[in-house]
Amino acid sequence: MTDPVLVGLDGSAASRRAVRWAAQAAGLRHRPLRMMTVFRWPVESYTVAPRAEMPDEAGVRDQVREMLDGEVRAIRAAHPDLDVRGDFVDGTPAKVLVEQSAGATLTVLGQRGEGGLTGLLLGSVATQVATHASGPVVVVPDEEPGIGPVVVGVDGSELSEPAIGFAFEEASWRRVELVAVHAWAAPGSHIEHDRIPRFYNLDEVIAEERRVLAESLAGWRVKYPDVSVRPVLAHGAPVPELLSESAGARLLVVGSRGRGGFAGLLLGSTSRSLLHRATCPVAVVRR
């Protein structure tokens, strides 16, 4: 399968919803869908019960395989034109999904798992995959997706450019409005021992932040003339502003880290917080 949409399935309601979201995304992209269940057998590591009293591993494996096969059949029935494949593999969920993301155009996970039969504890796994995956990662909450716009966070840095491009493309595919949010605060500095101005002209600051937002969108507007864009210049912290604008959205898109982050961080505080708190699917896009 060439550059499929990859989705993790552990049997939980959140992962089943992620599968449905991923199937739609694969259809929009004209890509195959690869559903992956990672099986981990933890019983012997955490019990002192005699082996004769432990669950039958072969029986549990068969049950998990049937769960995966059932979901594959359901998606094929719902999307007859979609190329769907189900893979059952042994391993540590986060490690396997990060490795497999290298060959995927997009990796999709549920926000939280229920433990399931596979040990795919989404939450920690979703965070690890969003942090270390090779390409874009979408984390889907266990709620009905909204019918609103695509929302993207814009901070004016080079790191946000791939996120903006991803958001424009998604809005074009889905034929919905794109809301571009640029949150700003009063002048300050993230550079150690740097001087911060005691006095400044607020009108000039606002004009500069408006310029940053407009220039960040300009090239993408030309590339995607079919996308209606609503720029939002917000005075405040990024997380609450993005959460507010993304209520009821189809998708919230952010970069893996912003301009204020430390260079060594793979996942910034803003994207990490949104992964846990957003009520719509969140896409984390890195360079």
UniProtKB/TrEMBL annotation:
Pfam family, one: Usp
Keywords attached to this entry: ATP-binding, Nucleotide-binding
UspA domain location: 1-141, 149-286
UniProt key word Endoplasmic reticulum: no
GO molecular function, one term: ATP binding
Family: Belongs to the universal stress protein A family.
Protein's recorded name: Universal stress protein
Organism per entry: Actinocatenispora rupis
